[in-house]
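During data preparation, a discrete fold description was generated, and the record follows.
___
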Amino acid sequence: MGFLARIFAGDKASCSEQDAVLAIDIEMMYCPVCDEEYRGDMTHCVSCDVELITGEYKRSLLQQKMIGRAPRSMLLRDDEAMLTLQKGPMKEMKHLKTLLARVEIPARLLSDDPALGKCCGGPQLYLQVRETDRDEASQILHQDFQKSTHLASHNLVGMDRAIDEGRRENSCPACGHLFTTGQPCCPDCGLVFSA
């Protein structure tokens, strides 16, 4: 049993909870299943084949456990207030739903297309979470976006110059999709053009 697994299991003989929080290096990555520690540039656990979480996020999980926050229910009721965080292809939305589930944030995938999957390019789904989970879920999705696009390591100064406001249509600098000038983000890949 890993160090953090003992902490989450309540093995207080091994060390205090505060020591466990301090032992988490925020520059490192951690497996949410086996608690193995990885370098900051790693993305998957070799043993469990799951995506790693940041040390900062692991630390916040442990701190939440210390303050006694009740575990979040993964069951979504029909009467709960939900909001849409993102719309995209089925494969991507399923990935994001799984990512949120790994950190105990329940999500729902919905479609407004009655012919789900019968059109060219596949169905577009809406990823929804509870309103109360909005901020935490948005942070997780933002981290995943930065990791998958490597935008966290790029200097985006001058990005606004890639869009010519005088033209009726522009091409997205990230994916090449043509869009009507004035849109705040690319309708295809979601790249944000304006703050």
Residues 3-66 form one domain. The chain has a mean pLDDT of 77. The radius of gyration is 20 Å. Residues 85 and 134 are 8 Å apart (CA to CA).
